[in-house]
Design brief:
Number of helices: 11
Strand content: under 5%
Order of helices and strands: HHHHHHHHHHH
Structural class: mainly alpha
Low-confidence stretches: 154-160
Mean pLDDT: 86
Largest sheet: none
Helix content: over 70%
Length: 239
């Protein structure tokens, strides 16, 4: 069950966060069940589940994943409101995780066609955890701290000088670095990275002179570091 669960989680992370453009999300929210992007999204999940499982029962497991995914997404699109999007995001993801666990249990024990070391649970777990720390973790952090977005960003000048999407990619890189440090047992490097980021951020926060902005950045940073550390510990604990 364990390796099937990890593979289905990997397929879900790719389908829901990495390979789903923002335009698809906007189209689904606007047209709901009439959106063709909803059905493309479900088809993508079916294909990914089939490819990653690659066993004699892959097609039935992938189809079941697709059916569950459609029902959950349809319910979310129907019932969520502008003021409940954050709540529905977590309900949606928890329900997807539950269905993945159920399908993994139902189809455990099926022989995989992946050869040699490619079928090892630890390898898949390390890959899945690393992927989680990219776009999925960035999305989760953004949703969590959205309620505390300060009225004024760092500053108008800072915004103009900032690279496009730089903050998101910096967050991804820092989480991946922490992940590597934890996997290799270099926890002191995590503290060094946190100190280095604090020094670089200090000038911007001091210039902004906004305590809410400082708290906002601090919450985001601690969430990012915490998620990366826990994920690394879980991946290191896989047998």
């Amino acid at each position: 069950m364990e390796i099937i669960l990890i593979k289905l989680l990997l397929a879900h992370l790719l389908g829901d966060f990495v390979l789903q453009p923002n335009a698809w999300v906007a189209d689904k929210e606007r047209l709901k069940l009439a959106s063709g992007k909803l059905y493309l999204h479900v088809a993508l999940h079916i294909i990914l589940a089939f490819v990653f499982l690659a066993n004699s029962e892959a097609w039935t497991a992938a189809l079941l994943i697709g059916i569950f995914h459609f029902v959950i997404d349809a319910a979310k699109l129907k019932f969520q409101k502008d003021n409940t999007k954050r709540t529905w995001f977590f309900i949606d993801q928890l329900l997807h995780l539950f269905t993945i666990a159920v399908v993994s249990w139902l189809y455990s024990g099926q022989p995989a066609f992946w050869p040699g070391f490619i079928a090892e649970t630890k390898l898949w777990g390390i890959i899945c955890a690393a992927l989680f720390l990219t776009m999925p973790a960035a999305t989760i952090i953004r949703v969590v701290i959205a309620r505390w977005i300060p009225e004024t960003p760092l500053s108008a000048s800072a915004d103009r000088k900032s690279l496009q999407d730089a903050g998101r990619f910096i967050g991804i890189l820092e989480r991946l670095l922490i992940y590597i440090f934890v996997l290799t047992g270099h926890f002191e490097a995590v503290g060094f990275l946190l100190a280095a980021k604090s020094i670089f951020r200090f000038g911007d926060l001091k210039e902004a002179q906004d305590i809410k902005l400082t708290e906002y950045v601090l919450i985001g940073t601690l969430l990012s570091f915490g998620i990366a550390t826990v994920t690394g510990l879980l991946a290191a604990g896989l047998s």
